[in-house]
């Protein structure tokens, strides 16, 4: 997978609040805009946790708006001799950019970040509809997701 000349892939920037990050996330789930101040607070907190949160984005250069994003979070275990597990979260590609392999490129980038961080596996939760997409990204089905809302 590769980017077209109209697009740029890079780490999330604190200024991306103004580049439609929340509008992009609405393709995924309810993502009410928390405002610039809270956005900066959350970004700063994540940056203060070394080697833990990696969010990558794809920017449409002409409009200077985000068109895809995804996060990998590194969990530190007691098991597996203090092993590290990568969790992929919040993958979103804007509707008009879907089908251009941007989702695949985001996943491959996050997978590589997890590998470079020293993780022994990468896991994620998804809907049944998205199983074919993740299989094409190289994942296989294992276990079941459980949830309790608090
Ligand atoms: N069903 C079947 N195949 C699919 C689907 C699907 N829903 N989505 C993509 N594919 C296939 C493509 O056809 C392509 O196959 P090919 O290589 O044979 O041509 C391959 O998967 C790669 O597709 P991309 O073009 O990279 O997919 P896209 O950029 O459209 O991104 C994504 C896929 C992320 C699911 C996008 O449609 C999206 O943002 N959907 C809404 C939000 C969402 O559901 N996000 C994932 C939530 S799960 C999580 O975050 C861990």
Topology:
Elements: E1 7-11, H1 21-25, H2 36-48, E2 53-60, E3 65-76, H3 79-82, E4 84-93, H4 102-116, E5 121-123, H5 131-136
Parallel strand pairs: 4-5
Antiparallel strand pairs: 1-2, 2-3, 3-4
The chain binds acetyl coenzyme *A.
Walk across the major sheet and give the strand order.
Answer: 1-2-3-4-5
Terminal CA distance: 39 Å
Please tally the β strands and state the result. 5
Whole-number radius of gyration? 16 Å
Secondary structure: helix percent: 25-40%
Low-pLDDT runs of 5+ residues are: none
Largest sheet composition:
5 strands, mixed
Quickly list its features.
single chain, 150 residues, alpha+beta, Aminopeptidase, five-stranded mixed beta sheet, 5 helices, 25% strand, globular, binds acetyl coenzyme *A
């Amino acid at each position: 997978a590769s980017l077209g000349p109209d697009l740029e892939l890079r780490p999330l920037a604190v200024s991306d609040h103004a580049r439609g990050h929340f509008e992009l996330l609405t393709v995924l789930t309810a993502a009410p805009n928390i405002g610039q101040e809270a956005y900066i607070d959350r970004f700063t907190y994540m940056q203060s946790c070394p080697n833990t949160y990696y969010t990558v984005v794809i920017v449409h250069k002409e409009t200077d708006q985000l068109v895809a994003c995804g996060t990998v979070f590194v969990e530190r275990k007691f098991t597996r001799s203090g092993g590290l597990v990568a969790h992929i979260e919040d993958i979103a590609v804007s509707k008009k950019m879907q089908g251009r392999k941007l989702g695949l490129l985001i996943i491959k980038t996050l997978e590589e970040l997890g590998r470079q961080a020293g993780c022994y596996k990468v896991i994620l939760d998804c809907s049944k509809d998205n199983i074919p997409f993740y299989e094409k990204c190289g994942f296989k089905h294992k276990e079941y997701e459980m949830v309790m809302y608090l």
